[in-house]
Please model this.
Amino acid sequence: MRLHLQELTAGAPPGRSVTEPKPGVPPKAPKAIPAVSRHRLWLALLAGFSGLLLLMAAAGTQALAVLGHMNDADAQLLQRFKERSRLLSQIRSQIYLSGTLVRDSILAPAPASVEAQMERLKVSERDTAQAIRDYERGADREERVPFQQLASEVQEYWKVLDSTLASAHYKSVKEKYAFFYDQLVPRRTAMLQIADRVGALDEAALGRGQEQFSRQFDRFRLASITTLAIALLGGLLVTALTTMYVVRLARESELRLEEASSARASLQELSARLVRAQEDERRALSRELHDEVSQAFSAILMETDNLLDLEQPPDVRARLMSVRGLATRGVDVTRNMSLLLRPSMLDDFGLIPALRWLARDAARRTGLRVQVDAPEAADDLPEEHKTCIFRIVQEALRNVARHAQARSVQITVYNEANGVSVSIQDDGAGFDTRWVRGLGLLGMEERVRHVGGRFAIDSQPGRGTALRADLPIAQVLSGENRNGHDPDSARG
Amino acid sequence: MDTIRILLADDHNVMRDGLRMLLERQPGFEVVAEAADGLEAVRRTEEQTPDVVVMDIAMPTLNGIEATRRITSSMPVTSVVILSMHYDESYVLRSLKAGAKGYLLKDSAKADLINAIRAVHEGRSFLSPRISRILQDDYLEQLNARGVEDSYDLLTAREREILQLVAEGKTNKEIAGVLNISPYTIDTHRAHILQKLNLHSAPELILYAVRKGLIS
Model:
């Protein structure tokens, strides 16, 4: 029995030891971005983006303003040029007209028509003077000197003309012609030349204006290109920074997720190992209590009985009776403890006998009517599945006894094509599955998850409760792991 | 009266010593051998052919139930009494199915062992009164809970007589002698009883009788 015992007390195989560190877990935690730096980064990003937007808005507004201004200036320049050209040609034509009028008056000196021609000359003179004044107002600096020349020439011309015409009656036709050709024509020609010079100057001014305009446009283009380049560079920078930050965040969150899921996995693994370790411990303890402690109490009982059979003084007999009582209690207590920890039928005969015992035990304790419906063949199960179902049913019966106020419980084990299912149904008070999550339900769910199964609760207040667990059995593993009801494994 | 030759199989020395002391004080009892494990129990039984084997269940190498199965199949003259700590019916039923004639609890050994050995030696069955009581209580509780009719009421008077005698461990031949009818008729009656009570073997019949309080 010593060997037997040692093997039992060895308990959990070392591979399942809870304290054994798992290699590779936990993974190195990613360097988190501290809150302060994150704050600063937000500020920087905000400043970057808003600066960029402001720059672009300012550049756009400025460009519009410059374009408008340049358009205005261009139009003004052209307008002015046209106006001056018109004035100049008016002056020219008035001069021509005056020449024609003078010649006509010389050639046809009818006194009536001379008066009319004088009138027309006056008008022409006035118009010319008006045009000269108008022109002078907008004259450039370069134009001023030739223009004043022109003005004084014109004034002179009109003076000569006036005096000529005033004295026309008294001169001969020949003299008149001579005067016309010698005095007036050269003057008119000089004037026209000056007018041409002024016109040329005006055209040059237009050219200069257009040149200036084109320089302005060049400057504007340069400024625009510079602004665009700055905006592009800034945008590139901000985009690069943002992209880097986003990538970093994404990587970080990915790592976090990995970390979290691996932590969850190792937590589940740990909890599964804890459950297994607990079960192994319980089995070892139960066996120890039953095979050793309880047997020792029985032996004491037997020996006491043997002593009581012999002649004994009354006080010794009384002591022996007391020992006997203690030993009897010891037997009962250890037997109950052993069953409570893990009933031997589960390991000796399998799941179904253990469930039947559980049902009888619950019925005895609580007066519940507990029925087990299970094919004996359903007992060909892997160790973990047996334990899982047994513990679920045990917990469920405890719940029913404590909370359900039920009269009967139906426990059913089904053999499925690739697994085994168990359902526990009571006719008790039921509960709202949305709110109630205690009652050891989480523990049951956890156990079922450890063997890769599904756990379902169906309950409503007043309608009883049905629990169901579906446990798959891996076909490959089932051969080596199975541990059906086999009298060979029975222990005392 | 012949001496009853006994073999003690238990892996606890103290237990075996105590049992030996208890039994040897009784006239007509002789402990001819001891065994500390299941295989030894089978071997010693084959060597000594004792009348009765007192067998623990929890033993190394071979448990008591399997050792019982081997002994009763190869040594029909030897009767086995299981002496165990277990009082659950799964152990009782499996022991009886393996061929044991008696089932005792260790904590009541002093009171019951002598009677049990005598009973099985005479070909009768014997269960610890405590076991009988537990079985009966459970049965009654189940009947009450289910609220169904007791299937015992389905049996005829003759079938009830035969059930009683079968449960007491009598062979068909003995029953035929008592009731003065043919052993074949008894076979037919037994089949009917099993069918009506939804049982499948003689040990289940015995358990049923115990639960009903027909025998103890």
